[in-house]
């Protein structure tokens, strides 16, 4: 039996030590907000926090979690920063299909908790491991800026997709090649 601290609650699970945390969250505990994308730490869809740091739960054996606090998208709004990030996502109308967005929000919240006023370069570095097939990168960056500065931008003034969509597409294609699906 493994005891986990998830979103402030103690949860006991009877699972193999090497089961990835993502499987435990989704299939054993029923917290399905965290998504499966690639399963090989390449897309960021499965991002959760471990003691506040963003980690890829698809490649994290559950036994390696130990006593560290796990926060998922279901619990991130309990922190002041997480709540602001969620509100900014709504204000900026970031989401398109939504599949990647749990992971995006978790990475953004971890960044802003550690670095309340990140530069654009710091945003790019922190968010570079989170792929969005819908190309919501411009709005993601703007939402992070909103939390950092408190300044709101009207969402209708922003493009729906990254202007450099070729770069975004390239990210997706390299991801597909890694998967061997192309
Ligand atoms: S599912 Fe974990 S990084 Fe893609
Ligand atoms: S919103 Fe569709 S993959 Fe990101």
Please, could you describe this protein's structure?
The structure is a single chain. The longest helix has 15 residues. Helix 2 packs across helix 3 and helix 2 crosses helix 5. The protein contains 6 helices and 5 strands, in the order E-E-H-E-E-E-H-H-H-H-H. It has a 5-stranded mixed sheet with strand order 2-1-5-3-4, with helices on both faces. It is an alpha+beta fold. The C terminus is likely disordered. The termini are far apart. It has 2 domains: 70 residues, Ubiquitin-like (UB roll); 103 residues, [2Fe-2S]-binding domain (DNA polymerase, domain 1, Orthogonal Bundle), CATH 1.10.150.120. 40% of the residues lie in helices and 12% in strands. Strand 3 and strand 4 form a beta hairpin. One FE2/S2 (inorganic) cluster binds next to loops.
């Amino acid at each position: 039996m493994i005891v986990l601290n998830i979103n402030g609650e103690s949860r006991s699970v009877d699972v193999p030590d090497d089961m990835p945390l993502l499987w435990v969250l989704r299939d054993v505990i029923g917290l399905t907000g965290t998504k499966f994308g690639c399963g090989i730490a390449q897309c960021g869809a499965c991002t959760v926090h471990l003691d506040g740091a963003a980690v890829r739960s698809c490649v994290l054996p559950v036994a390696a979690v130990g006593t560290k606090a796990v926060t998922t998208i279901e619990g991130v709004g309990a922190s002041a920063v997480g709540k602001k990030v969620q509100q900014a996502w709504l204000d900026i109308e970031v989401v398109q299909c939504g599949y990647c967005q749990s992971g995006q929000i978790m990475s953004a919240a971890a960044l802003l908790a550690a670095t309340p006023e990140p530069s654009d370069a710091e945003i790019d570095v922190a968010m570079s491991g989170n792929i969005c097939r819908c190309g919501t990168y411009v709005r993601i960056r703007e939402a992070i800026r909103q939390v950092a500065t408190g300044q709101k931008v009207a969402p209708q003034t922003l493009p729906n997709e990254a202007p450099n969509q070729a770069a975004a597409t390239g990210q997706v294609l390299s991801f597909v090649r890694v998967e061997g699906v192309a």
